[in-house]
From TrEMBL:
<dbReference type="InterPro" id="IPR049905">
    <property type="entry name" value="H1_KCTD12"/>
</dbReference>
<keyword id="KW-1003">Cell membrane</keyword>
<dbReference type="InterPro" id="IPR057093">
    <property type="entry name" value="H1_KCTD8_12_16"/>
</dbReference>
<dbReference type="GO" id="GO:0043005">
    <property type="term" value="C:neuron projection"/>
</dbReference>
<dbReference type="GO" id="GO:0008277">
    <property type="term" value="P:regulation of G protein-coupled receptor signaling pathway"/>
</dbReference>
<dbReference type="Pfam" id="PF23110">
    <property type="entry name" value="H1_KCTD8_12_16"/>
</dbReference>
<dbReference type="GO" id="GO:0043235">
    <property type="term" value="C:receptor complex"/>
</dbReference>
<dbReference type="GO" id="GO:0045211">
    <property type="term" value="C:postsynaptic membrane"/>
</dbReference>
<keyword id="KW-0597">Phosphoprotein</keyword>
<protein>
    <submittedName>
        <fullName>Potassium channel tetramerization domain containing 12</fullName>
    </submittedName>
</protein>
<feature type="domain" description="KCTD8/12/16 H1">
    <location>
        <begin position="38"/>
        <end position="155"/>
    </location>
</feature>
<dbReference type="GO" id="GO:0042734">
    <property type="term" value="C:presynaptic membrane"/>
</dbReference>
<keyword id="KW-0472">Membrane</keyword>
<keyword id="KW-0966">Cell projection</keyword>
Amino acid sequence: MALADSARGLPNGGGVPCGGPLLTPSQSLDGGAGRRSGYITIGYRGSYTIGREAQADAKFRRVARITVCGKTALAKEVFGETLNESRDPDRPPERYTARYYLKFNFLEQAFDRLSEAGFRMAACSSTGTCAFAPEQGGLADDKIWTSYTEYVFCRD
């Protein structure tokens, strides 16, 4: 363990622990009878246009799709009927997938379901790119920003 990591109290070389004892994803704190520990990653793409007067005329677009990555059994447990499995319908429960998405478009609703199932946010990451909009019929000063954001949730 690096000195800087131990000074901050971070085990495992600086990784962010979910808390409690280190478990494999198939174990749980209650001896396996009940909820499984594991990770679920929620991702989405967003875009918005900003003109010359950035404060006044930002035009946000809705989130088109929220993707779900993780162990199939965990995703089904947390999201139930709101999980769209059409892109990976025959995935066995013990396998992982990155092809599921949710039937709703509200991040807060996904966060609520994860919280109710005992998951906590462990990390998040976002990227963004910018392009000028005249090609898309916008004004010469308009910029289109796109981003991809992921949230990692864990349950002990």
